[in-house]
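G., the chain you wanted modeled:
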Amino acid sequence: MFDRPQSGTRAVLLHLDLTSQGKKACLQEFADLANAAGIDTAAVVRGSRKLPNPRYFIGTGKAEEVRRLVADKEAELVLVNHALTPVQERNLEKYLGCRVVDRTGLILDIFAQRASTFEGKLQVELAQLRHLSTRLVRGWTHLERQKGGIGLRGPGETQLETDRRLITGRIRHLKRRLDKVQKQRSLQRKSRRKSQVSTISLVGYTNAGKSTLFNLLTGEAVHASSQLFATLDPTLRRIHLPPLDEVVLADTVGFIRDLPHQLVAAFRSTLEETSEATLLLHVIDAHDEERHERIAQVEQVLKEIGADTVPMIEVYNKIDLLDEGQARIDRGEDGKPLRVWLSAHSGAGLDLLRQALSEHLTAVHIPMDPGVIRQRLYLQPRAARLRDKLFQWKVVRGESMSENGGWIVDVAVGEGVLGYLKKQQGCQLVSE
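Predicted structure as tokens:
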């Protein structure tokens, strides 16, 4: 019988370039993941193959090299920068004599360390159990033993069957609890839509500077560091963004290459904040040489969660690290903002980002139609905020005080804005 060896923090990193995939995995990102998990890296082993070995993932010669390194460096763990099948994981552990963790298991471990809210812990546990359930059949052969002892001998379920049943029951329990959280989030989003509050969601590759930008826009002190997945639990704050009164800004978990599907499924309620947003700010590390690959990975995840149709503005961050980085707005042929170049570290370009956000959200909430309509409005005293909006939108053509303390305002607006004004409390249309 083969029992899984104990784990530790001293590890050998195993990185394999698969030429059949047409692109190489990033070794530096893998090392950063190991560092984020608190791993003490003893050695790094690189290799290249056309296709993975079905038994060990790596060839037998490379497996022998890793085994010697594990013994020489007294490593307790081997981290593999790829997703392993349960069979490959078990065979490697048996051959190397130490615990083997693939890329998916490493990311799940980081999430388990960083989860701080009740919802976050539930989501991570659900993802871990889904991952573990695929490892029960072949990777845990000691669980195939049948129960023994007084009163337990004879026909009955094996330990493997017991564990599978317990895990399945726990997964159902977690899904029920997360469904309740999802309903609560859905109600909150419905309330924001009813009150016409826009939501801006920060998305991007992990360590692109989303939390630093979030702190700059909100004045908060959300934890931000250069580590991967420094932000796990979503944070929402209201900010003032003229000409609108308030909008909600959401800081979300960063994406990464080969983000485990278990995590995407478990974080469904959190990621819905992104798919239901009014606008996405795709934060990009402008100094990253592989930023184009990072952008493609983020767009792939957005497509998986159904957020690829949400309007987006790209934010190229960290221009202070570029030789000739200047804050600017790149616009499309229609004049709408497409990209904003800034530095969340120094604050350069923040005013340009606010300008781009105001332009986009104003176009969403006060669409100006080609045909302009002159209309006289009566605004009650309680509609003072709406009066301020009209002046900010520069649609007021004249104003006078009414006898009861309100205002008579002449405006020139499109049909879309006029329909918006008809729905506002304290606002009445006055016939000529």
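The first helix runs from residue 27 to 36.

Shout if anything looks off.
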